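Hi V.,

You were right to ask for the full record rather than a summary. Here it is.
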Amino acid sequence: MVEPAPLDRYRQWLQKHAAMSGPLEIGLSLLACYSASRWDEGEMSVFAEASYAAVGLFTLLNESILTSQRATSQRGERLVLSALDQVSRLSFPTC
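Predicted structure:
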């Protein structure tokens, strides 16, 4: 028996526990904000931007998994809006 890939296992878990995606993303966002505020400007600001980007990519991954059952046009629109939201957060952090 072939073991499913980690992404496939995560996809199955997320589809069964869709309500957990919001609190999980909020927790990661708070962690990114908290850890980013602990560093001085300079080299560690790259870490802050990378953590915001990672949370944004995680959110987009969850969004694409959860919307995979919807119509393609709706899915594309939601992903574009989510991507724009994450880019604006990277440009203007609100933490």
